[in-house]
Amino acid sequence: MTRYILEYAVTVLIIGAITAGAVLVFAGERNSPTSKRICMIDGKEAKAELYADGAGIRLYACSEECLDKMRSRAAQTKLVELSQREPELIPINRSHQWTTEEVRSDMVLIKGGEFSRPGLFLKRARRGESHEEVKHRGYRVRVAPFYMDKYEVTYEAYCRFLNDGNEKYATGGTQRNENGCFAPPRPEMARLPMRGANYFHAKAYAQWAGKRLPTEAEWEFAHGGSQGRTYPWGEEKPDKTRANFGPALKGLKPVGSLPNGQTPEGVFDLAGNIGEWCADYYDEDYYRNTSEEVIENPRGPKNGYLRVQRLGCQCRHATAEDLRGNLRCSASPFRAAPCVGFRCVLTK
Questions:
Q1: CA 60 from chain center: how many Å?
Q2: Which of 317, 308, 316 is closest to 340 using CA atoms?
Q3: DSSP 8-state class, residue 338
Q4: I want to staple 335 with a disulfide (CB 3.0 to 4.6 A). Which of 11, 143, 322, 331 is the partner?
Q5: Assigned CATH class of 100-347
Q6: Residue 311: per-residue pLDDT
Q7: Over the stretch 268-298, which tens digit does the pLDDT of each residue have?
Q8: Largest Cα–Cα distance in the chain?
Q9: Domain map (residue ranges) of the chain
Q10: Angle of helix 2-19 relative to helix 73-83, nearest 10 degrees?
């Protein structure tokens, strides 16, 4: 009961701060050294030494009293949701300065170009229901060249990130071994795609690796190319040689296990195995609110709360429709789902 009272009190305080005109600024959005961190509880200037870390983010407070109110996961989630702002990540450590060759290792160049959003997309439905068809004004999207990871980030790679001084980004799927280092739960899981990472975990890993998460438009272009392929490999219906999904799903497969399912550029597993986070905020109407014939390098809504996921769960109930490039999904950035992972991109 006490927990629910606290959560209600935090919500009331947040709403009060927002309606009073408090500017909720996060360090990640600061444009000049004079910008200030603002306490998200009451809108006052926050103190650098008062902060709560959790689920990949750091929230600053102006007093011990406010700090106590933002320690719980429920309070942090509500603060971020109501602020409609991008929170600051927990500081990321990197002991090694990546070279260009290291960063681009296991990445492929997507040359860029145009593709069509032809006036219809699918909105993910609940399990067992048909996906909703959403109509919009068709238009074209132009994407600049970029590099994309061939494979989704693996347990092995994510553990390297944790062991580089980033233990605060540990998730339920990672654990320490007898030597105190993070390692995949079992050796055979090293090359499986990392799952159970929320949006902030994924974003932090990408920054540590010298990369970033893909925009939704980049992900779409990698999936379908300028031709608008229905599936990453083309128009042929998916089967167990191309994608790990549906009734044939027997658990995750190591990344790159199905070469018949790769794109012409050599990107693996963009359909099946596991879903992937994108960088954009999610807004169903974002696809529809345009009068332009061509949109260049769209980055999604300027603010929001939900984040884009692409091709979500590949569970045993999944069908070929779940692997189409025009299926849009979304989730709370705090959601650490066992069916969602991520891969990174790099601006050319």
A1: 23
A2: 308
A3: T
A4: 331
A5: alpha beta
A6: 84
A7: 999 999 999 999 999 888 877 677 889 999 9
A8: 60
A9: 2-89, 100-347
A10: 20
Give mean pLDDT in consecutive 10-residue pieces for the chain, a chain of 348 residues. 44 41 33 62 93 96 95 93 91 95 97 87 64 77 97 97 97 87 93 96 98 97 94 94 86 95 97 95 82 90 93 77 86 93 96
Q: Is 272 left (phi over 0), alpha (psi -120 to 50) or beta?
A: left
CA distance 79 to 73: 10
Q: Alpha-carbon distance 37 to 34, whole Å?
A: 10
CA distance 171 to 167: 9
Report the C-alpha gap between 292 and 289 in whole angstroms: 9
Q: Give 38-75 as a DSSP string.
A: B-TTTSSBP-TT-EEEETTEEEE-SSHHHHHHT-SHHH
Distance CA 168, CA 56 (A): 7
Provide the CA 32 distance to its chain's centre, in angstroms.
27
**Cα dihedral sign, 215-219-225-230:** negative
Amino acid (1-letter code) at residue 15: I
**Starting from the edge strand earliest in sequence, which strands make up the sheet with 132-135, in order?**
132-135, 120-123, 327-331, 307-310, 275-281, 340-341
Query: What is the Cα–Cα distance from 218 to 278, expressed in whole angstroms?
Result: 9
- What beta strand segments (E) does the chain contain? 51-54, 57-60, 88-89, 107-110, 113-117, 120-123, 132-135, 139-143, 146-149, 175-176, 182-183, 275-281, 294-296, 307-310, 327-331, 340-341, 345-347
Q: Estimate to the nearest angstrom the gap between the alpha carbon of 2 and the chain centroid.
A: 33
Q: What contacts 84, CB < 8 A, 6 or more positions away? A: 303, 304, 305
Tokens of 102: 């290291």
Q: In what order do the strands lie in the sheet with 294-296?
A: 113-117, 139-143, 294-296
Cβ neighbours, 10 Å, residue 261: 25
Q: Is the pTM of this model over 0.70?
A: yes
* Closest to 220 (Cα-Cα) out of 110, 325, 137: 325
Concatenating the DSSP letter of every residue in 273-290 gives S-EEEEEEEP-GGGGT--
